[in-house]
Amino acid sequence: MSASAPAMERAMVGQPAPDFEMASTKNLEKLNENVKLSDYRGKWLVLLFYPLDFTFVCPTELTTFSDRYEDFEGIGADILGVSTDSVYSHRAWLQTPRDKGGVEGLKYPLAADATKQVARDYGVLIEDKGVALRGLFVIDPEGILRYKVVHDLNVGRSAEETIRVIQALQTGGLCQAEWKPGQETIKA
Question: Which CATH number belongs to the domain containing residue 104 in this structure?
Answer without folding.
Answer: 3.40.30.10
